[in-house]
Write a sequence for this structure.
């Protein structure tokens, strides 16, 4: 039975790879003027285009440009398949604050959806080169990564740290709400979630459906939709209903699952979606069906995923990060794994991590971002490394002009990831 399933899986994998967009020979589209999104409130020029690998992009340049370029690496990953220009527009809309502050901004969709940290780092660097060719060399270039994109920016900072022995193209890195521990450490708890959910609910997969190792995410020929999975989750746990309308068994089920993997109840469905469709793409399309997560993980799959995404700390520019302490999507404890990489590489002096008393992931207090950008520029222009305390104090000073959204907690000490989620370092060869 298992052999038949694996043969079927291999055939479906080959078919899926043939169906992926062929981006190597994509027609490059030069930057074309566009109307800026309404969120860009200052006078600015905006452009869209497509690079030679097939990734779309948006660029925004304010008329009063401070000659600093922010290269943005977006979160996700996006849905597997061909990229969509709309994704980059949405990123510009969310991060229009940067253009409104005088920074030029450029964001790539990446050449395809789905998982691929190194791929996305390459696409981000390709867009930087496009910007320089068409709009000139900025005085400074910052890398900004959000969520999954923080891992992308971290990888780009390492890949392009030097060029011919000289400093690379990036002057500093800003990481926000980062998934920065690498794919194995960051996603392993979602495999544990699949196990806990199936043990309690027994409906993903249903007994009547093909049974498969849960680290596969979902068979490639499955027709399961997100709406159907949400229905099954609600049936088992009552999630999505007012608490008063949940049965006692639903309350007990939801509590048992959430406690087993230490997640917020309202984040269950999001994590379960990632442990389904993201795993399907990551494990089956990117790792050839090899298991990087469970106790009997394939050592080569673990090593390959680490090479693609795990930080090494080998950078030569300042790195400043912000993470909400109660981030429900990317655990704040991931920052401990990132710091460990810098300590092991002897580059800890180039890293400053800050934390805020928030429980959001996608966007935090705007004045916090203003403060971080100011501090990062002072760090690279004047050699003045900030402290968590000085950033918190400066943020309070800026509230009068930018809004009272400062919730920095300079005394916070992030705990090891192992205290929050299952970690199996012994998997690494």
């Amino acid at each position: 039975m298992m052999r038949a399933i694996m043969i079927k899986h291999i055939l479906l994998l080959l078919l899926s790879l043939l169906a992926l967009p062929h981006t190597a020979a994509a027609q490059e589209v030069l930057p074309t003027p566009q109307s800026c999104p309404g969120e860009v409130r200052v006078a600015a020029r905006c452009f869209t285009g497509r690079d030679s690998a097939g990734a779309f992009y948006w660029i925004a340049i304010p008329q009063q440009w401070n000659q600093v370029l922010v290269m943005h690496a977006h979160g996700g990953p996006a849905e597997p398949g061909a990229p969509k220009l709309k994704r980059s527009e949405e990123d510009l809309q969310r991060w229009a604050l940067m253009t409104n502050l005088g920074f030029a901004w450029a964001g790539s969709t990446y050449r395809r959806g789905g998982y691929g940290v190194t791929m996305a780092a390459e696409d981000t660097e390709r867009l930087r080169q496009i910007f320089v060719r068409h709009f000139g060399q900025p005085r400074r270039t910052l890398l900004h990564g959000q969520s999954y994109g923080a891992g992308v920016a971290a990888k780009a900072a390492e890949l392009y740290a030097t060029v011919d022995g000289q400093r690379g193209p990036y002057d500093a890195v800003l990481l926000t709400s980062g998934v920065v521990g690498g794919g194995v450490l960051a996603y392993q708890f979602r495999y544990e979630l699949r196990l806990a959910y199936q043990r309690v609910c027994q409906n993903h997969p249903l007994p009547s459906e093909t049974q498969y190792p849960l680290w596969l995410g979902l068979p490639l020929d499955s027709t399961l939709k997100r709406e159907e999975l949400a229905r099954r989750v609600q049936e088992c746990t009552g999630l999505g209903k007012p608490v008063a309308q949940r049965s006692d068994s639903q309350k007990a089920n939801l509590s048992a699952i959430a406690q087993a993997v230490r997640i917020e109840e309202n984040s269950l469905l999001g994590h379960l979606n990632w442990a389904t469709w993201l795993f399907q793409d990551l494990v089956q399309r990117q790792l050839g069906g090899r298991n990087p997560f469970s106790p009997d993980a394939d050592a080569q799959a673990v090593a390959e995923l680490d090479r693609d995404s795990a930080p090494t700390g080998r950078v030569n520019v300042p790195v400043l990060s912000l993470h909400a302490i109660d981030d429900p999507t990317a655990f704040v404890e991931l920052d401990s794994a990132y710091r460990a990489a810098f300590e092991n590489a002897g580059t800890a002096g180039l890293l400053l991590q800050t934390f805020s008393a928030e429980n959001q992931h996608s966007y935090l207090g705007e004045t916090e971002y203003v403060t971080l950008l100011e501090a990062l520029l002072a760090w690279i222009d004047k050699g003045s490394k900030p402290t968590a305390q000085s950033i918190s104090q400066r943020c309070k000073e800026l509230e009068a002009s930018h809004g009272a959204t400062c919730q920095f907690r300079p005394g916070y000490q992030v705990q090891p990831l192992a205290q929050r989620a299952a970690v199996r370092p012994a998997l690494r060869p």
Q: What stands out?
A: Residues 186-307 form one domain. Residues 1-24, 425-429 have pLDDT under 50 and may be disordered. Residues 144 and 266 are 28 Å apart (CA to CA). Residues 117-135 form the longest helix (19 residues).
